[in-house]
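ok so I'm stuck.
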Amino acid sequence: MAMVDRVLWQRIIQQVVSEGGNIIRPWFTELEPISLEHGLLEIQVAGPAELAYCRHHAIRLFTEAAQTATGRLVGVCFLTKAVATDEVQTPAELPASSVPAADGMPAGCEDYTFDSFVTGPANRLAFAASMAVSESVGRTYNPLFLYGSVGLGKTHLLYSTCRKIAADNPSARISILTCETFVNDFIDAVANGQLHEFRYRYRHADVLAIDDIQFLANHERTQEEFFHTFNTLYQMQKQIILSSDRGPAQIADLEERLISRFNWGLVARIDRPCYETRVAIVRRKARRRGIDLPEDVICFVAGAIDSNTRELEGAIAKVEMLARVTDRPVNMALAHEAIGTASHRQRREITIEDILRAVTARFNVRLADLQSKKRTRSIAFPRQVCMFLARTLTRHSLEEIGGYFGGRDHTTVLHADRTIRALSEEDVGLQATLEKLTQEIQATA
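replied:
not stuck anymore, here's the structure
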């Protein structure tokens, strides 16, 4: 068996870090090269869950990295420790993610707790609502509907809520699943004549939590079944928690009666975290992983990744992975090498001037008016939008943002931020406008 040269493995990992993006996972640091022989690179993973992920999502990434590093046509094969060492893996050795959890919670979500969730202006309402639901099951905010773009913490809050309910009420029957699972279970039940068992399973739950409920769209019979399941649970005061990547009214091909019911409780939107929140997220994620990140590296990562929490965690994993395989200290040079890929290098930091240009064009107002003392709605509203976007998309302090708008103080900026967030919760049109402005501003950077 030909062992893998350490320098070659470092080159492969550097290529993976450079091109991996969202595919990279924190446990990639535990991958070990076993052999490179007859054009096949064997890589050992920790267990079955990691093996399944690598085979489904990372095989192409590692294959291309291996071929780039070696300059040869190389294939990649992932193996678990048991297979790699010709041992028999007993049930006791299986990772937690493959063993059913005793408390009714799915295994593999141990990190999804309220304590590990970082709150900020963009997610405070959703966090508070989830906490309230966990403390008053079925009586407060029923249903609870969480929505926002990918990687912003919807699933984290969904699982955290169910985990706390399970901890406080060990006998509670909790069904937490993805919408895809619900749809597939219903299809299987119809095909196998087991609708009674299907209905009993979901309509006798104390808590029904479904992730990515938007995938009910275009499934007419499943929508009909879920409608009756929803009604049954709601009438029995059982808790319903749903998450989606968009608000109820924005889910295409969803029946009006379901949209109406989704709005019966509380609909809480989660936005992208502001710079201060991203710094707090990076700091906490690094600490939980036992990584000592210098403050300048923390600020660099938070400034370079402004999209979502998942990408921030992926960036931390890249830095840790590169530091480990190259045996180098974590510093700014290594951080730039790990996440300063072409896309990041070409992307400059968003400025308030970028925001001002986009907002003045969209609302047809003059820059001088936004910076004046005028308080008419035609001027004050675009000004508040500017402050909201500056708070979300830049790393400027409240005082610095206020200074751009006629020397206003930090309380004015906070008021503007809260006002626009509250209005966007109720106005789908304003949500679309803010998202469009955000896209235009980011395109300029």
